[in-house]
């Protein structure tokens, strides 16, 4: 068996793909090359498509998690949808676990930074600083 098996390049509406419900483009290949949620390969198969996947090693996994964080944050920026923000939090939680970072510590650091520098409640936009 090659380093790619029959598990999934990723495809479902919530992860930015468009083929879980199937369509009439038989023989077409859609490239994704991104980290996807664990059940996506099964959902792709259930739709009648054939996913190709591989399991990332530690280095690739960390890199792809960071890419996924940017992807999900971008999707939230564009949609403003609570589901996309939930995806951001899911990736943050996974990154904390993988990197050995205590999520409560991250939240504490965020509170400290807010105390020291403020939050974003006052809607201040810094346009420029003149010297």
Automatic annotation (TrEMBL):
<protein>
    <submittedName>
        <fullName>Predicted house-cleaning noncanonical NTP pyrophosphatase, all-alpha NTP-PPase (MazG) superfamily</fullName>
    </submittedName>
</protein>
<feature type="region of interest" description="Disordered">
    <location>
        <begin position="1"/>
        <end position="27"/>
    </location>
</feature>
<dbReference type="InterPro" id="IPR038735">
    <property type="entry name" value="MSMEG_1276-like_NTP-PPase_dom"/>
</dbReference>
């Amino acid at each position: 068996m090659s380093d790619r098996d029959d598990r999934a390049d990723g495809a479902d509406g919530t992860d930015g793909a468009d083929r879980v419900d199937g369509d009439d483009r038989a023989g077409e290949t859609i490239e994704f090359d991104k980290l996807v949620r664990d059940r996506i390969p099964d959902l792709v198969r259930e739709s009648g498509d054939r996913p190709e996947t591989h399991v990332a090693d530690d280095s690739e996994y960390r890199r792809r998690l960071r890419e996924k964080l940017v992807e999900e944050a971008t999707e939230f920026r564009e949609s403003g949808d609570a589901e996309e923000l939930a995806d951001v939090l899911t990736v943050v939680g996974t990154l904390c676990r993988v990197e050995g970072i205590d999520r409560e510590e991250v939240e504490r650091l965020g509170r400290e930074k807010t105390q020291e520098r403020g939050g974003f409640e006052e809607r201040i936009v810094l346009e420029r600083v003149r010297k």
